[in-house]
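Structure in, sequence out. Go:
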């Protein structure tokens, strides 16, 4: 018998279909794709995604152009979400920024990463420190019920150049309050999830780099917290090299030690990849 199948033939290796695209600024966008049925991941992990590159001028052969992207959606979501920078001359993002629903992209279904609950020892308060697109893994983690069952309080800090670049995170945090499952977890207790946005190049209620505000104690005064201590506080950091280096120094200064999947401790760091 002849098989007639209405689904489009997947021409790319590990192809997934784009379901939604939303542009925030000329530098930032978010997109959702279908999720491979077999893909299991831990909130905070990343996968390699990409597109076929241009044909080689000599051989005519095309090779996949792949980059590491944190999965921004929670593990219970039936689709996968990603949050990306657009770099006009970036090998991948110059093309990726033009994707539309129905297009296909390549997704290698091998999630890995250190921004996972397993890499931290139990604690009371969990800090997520992000700059720019470094918020992506935390977009997954703040939608994971385990985050709220493991900790009394979760603080998400996000530093961006201007107010428009905060939109993705702000809208996400706002949407959680009315979420059927997470809304309940966020109620009770005061401020279970605290959102602390700062900008560095445009006026906003909280100006300056998060690193500066930690070092001069502004963050703690704003939040009514004594400080960060290894007995109660855990942290995950995701941003530029500069942010990661500076925050490592600051957190170690507070007595926190860097953890890993194989040896959990008090904080973990990962570079925000595409940029
Ligand atoms: P700044 O404007 O002072 O450079 P980008 O969009 O370039 O990735 O930067 C995202 C945000 O991260 C910007 O607000 C930027 O501030 C901030 N940033 C850059 N380097 C550091 C660092 N070493 N520590 C803290 N924040 C940083």
């Amino acid at each position: 018998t002849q098989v007639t199948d209405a689904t489009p033939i997947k021409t790319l290796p590990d192809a997934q279909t784009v379901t939604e695209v939303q542009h925030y600024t000329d530098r930032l966008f978010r997109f959702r794709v279908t999720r491979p049925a077999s893909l299991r991941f831990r909130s905070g992990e990343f996968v390699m995604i990409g597109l076929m590159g241009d044909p080689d001028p000599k051989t005519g052969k095309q090779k996949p152009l792949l980059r590491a992207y944190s999965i921004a959606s929670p593990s219970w979501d039936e689709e996968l979400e990603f949050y990306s920078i657009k770099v006009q001359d970036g090998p991948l993002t110059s093309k990726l920024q033009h994707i539309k629903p129905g297009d296909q992209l390549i997704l290698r279904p091998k999630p890995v990463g250190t921004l996972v609950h397993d890499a931290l020892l139990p604690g009371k308060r969990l800090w997520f420190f992000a700059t720019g697109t470094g918020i992506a893994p935390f977009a997954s983690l703040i939608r994971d019920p385990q985050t709220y069952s493991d900790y009394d309080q979760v603080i998400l800090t996000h530093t961006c150049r201007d107010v428009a670049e905060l939109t993705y995170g702000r809208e996400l945090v706002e949407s959680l309050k009315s979420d059927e499952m997470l809304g309940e977890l966020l109620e009770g207790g005061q401020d279970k999830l605290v959102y602390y946005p700062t900008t560095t190049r445009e006026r906003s209620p909280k100006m300056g780099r998060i690193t500066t505000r930690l070092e001069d104690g502004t963050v703690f005064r704003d939040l009514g917290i004594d400080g960060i201590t290894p007995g109660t506080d855990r942290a995950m950091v995701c941003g530029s090299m500069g942010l990661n280096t500076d925050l490592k120094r600051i957190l170690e200064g507070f007595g926190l030690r860097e953890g890993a999947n194989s040896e959990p401790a008090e904080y973990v760091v990962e570079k925000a990849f595409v940029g």
